[in-house]
Amino acid sequence: MTEGNATAVRSAVTRALRGVHWYLKELTGEARWDDYLRHCAEHGHEPMGRREFERRRADERERNPVSRCC
Amino acid sequence: MSTTVSRNDAGGPAPGGAGRRRPSVRTVLVWSAVAVVGAVAWTVLALARGETVSALWILFAALSSYAIAYRFYARFIARRVLQVDDRRATPAERLHNGIDFDVTDRRVLFGHHFAAIAGAGPLVGPVLAAQMGYLPGTIWIIVGVIFAGAVQDMTVLFFSMRRNGKSLGQMVREEIGIVGGIAALIAVFAIMIIILAVLALIVVNALAESPWGVFSIALTIPIALFMGVYLRTLRPGRVLEATAIGVVLLLAAVIGGGLIDDTGLGEALTLSKETLVIALVVYGFVASVLPVWLLLTPRDYLSTFMKVGVIVLLAIGLLLARPVLQADAVSEFAREGTGPVFAGSLFPFVFITIACGALSGFHALISSGTTPKMVAKESQVRLIGYGGMLMESFVAISALIAAVVIDQGLYFAMNAPAGVTGGTAESAAAYVNGLGFDTTAQDLAAASAAIQEPSLVSRTGGAPTLAVGIAQILSDAFGSGMAAFWYHFAIMFEALFILTAVDAGTRVGRFMLQDTIGNVWKRFGDLAWRPGNIMASAAVVALWGYILYVGVTDPLGGVNQLFPLFGIANQLLAAIALTLVTVLLIKHGKAKYAWVTGIPLAWDLIVTMTASWQKVFSADPRVGYFAQRQRYADAQAAGELLAPAQDADQMGRIIYNSTLNGVLQAVFALLVLVVVVNAVVVIARALRARGPVPTTEEPAVPSSIVEPSGLFATAEEKRALAEQERLVGAGTRGHGTFTEEGPSR
Question: Where do the domains of chain B lie, and which CATH numbers do they carry?
């Protein structure tokens, strides 16, 4: 394998892993916090703390139950 | 799903098939190849008799059929039938609030939707249906999903999306009528109770007398609690971290279970079915009133990761192990209807035993409500609704394969109720020999020793059989010596997401009850009112707990008696959903396409009504609940005992249970008929109007977001995305719902 090939493979693997990480963060809702920070930065709000943020999300989940099928 | 599926098409930005092009030579070649592979696989399955057939043919038949259906039929439904319109803003865009209305990346939403629809159903039904041979189940799962199940999920998702994510019950009330609406509401609630009871029954059957299983399942509770506290206080929001820790602990719990067998703890955890019922009922109640962050949410993460992990593992295992089919293509039970797993002939009972994976009405509750509020672009209903259901169907096919590659003597010894096998290896072997399968008491004992379970005789419910199949496939694929671990791993994973479904279902049932009763007693409808929560939770748990208890103590075998009720209930719900979408197609002036949902509706009604009729009116006491009741009542009157009852008490129980099941069955069917009759009136009125009639569809609002419609963005869509970026400027799109660090679109 040439050096160029190895670099190409490595960057493909890194891209794939980054993609998986992105997907899992989105799927579990972990990424909501990053979205929120970005939103605050864009609009010049002072963001609340993470603990408070996650608490509010948990309260929302309490009110909107998600059904799980059989 | 195959990655080649969506590369060549985009669903089109404009309705009515705009952007239609001549397909490239490459496209034609690829799809011809897929068609040839599918045709060869189906031919092998259909013609092979008495030879060794690889299970991979089932896999190939399924995957190529799914690919073709997704590429051509789902696209036809999206473009011609529903006329999805990507210029129209979805409720997620119009009503964005970051809570329930939230524009979500299509791939992420696909994952959410799949996690919500796929549970134990597609794993269990196909295992039970395997008593009829591998072919009926394979055909129904694949044909059923393509023309019924996926169509239902996709169309319900679409119509709910056009109505701001209204629920199924709401849509039936507003679009069909108040009578149908009330019937649908009652049916949804009752069916949910039955589904929860049967799911819990499967867990009870899998865990009874199995200290290893009880140990690892019991530990999922403290593990989830730990994760909950971790995410609440220690490291808020670090879900991936917490889940990784949870999965490691879970595996440790499965391994640890193997060490407790001969200890005092092992003895203490050898629980009877009755004890497990009490444990589950208490657990269900507590889980329903606890805050979600403590137990439900973390458990949901675990179960989603396990679900996907096991499915991927099993698919790899199948490719590596390449097992050979042990079951007949069509067994004699299919012809005679005398099988021990469930009674009744191939038609209609294969089609209701396999509900999830082919056609599952419960999905309509998820396709209306949660998912439609998160769809970014209308054309994505094809990927999420149709594609998500194809994925569930693939899970069902994998489960079917696991059941038909194990020794069939073992299969029947495990799945026939204890009343006929006698419960010991000797009596079970004799019984199975009588059915015409080779097995010995030593074989059965060796099979249970290999997975370190006290016994495998009459371990009904499908979960243990599936676990044996999975253990066999994974041992063949990844080296032997681990069969016991794989078995308990599989049991743990099934029980884990059944319990998640039971938790979530109890909570949803509680909300429904509070909402409904809240119409007459306002206070009760207040979700923040603690006594109301507790009363409603207790009522829901008591209802499913009662039916669970009835099933567990049924001398005829709870699975044998209740599973048909579960399957019929689920498909009656599908009948309500398909009725709704058919009515909507006609009301929207698309009567010429009403066959798309009308044909699966007609088939579903024929199947469920025939099955209901037989369960209520059949003179054969194995099939008809009331004939069964009569037979035992006559014997009781004559002072006799009829097997499998061993005393007068059991006689009384059989009579009582048969009556209860028969009445429930009749009520479900009648509720659905009320909806259908109401719908026929509405359809007749709409057809007389000749053209669209008013519906509750929200008016169109232009969309300002650009998103690809399929799994992979086409070149055209990538250009559109880049254009959008350039115009708006990076980072100011929406409310930060999109992450640009994501993989290339």
Answer: 25-210+270-688 (1.20.1740.10)
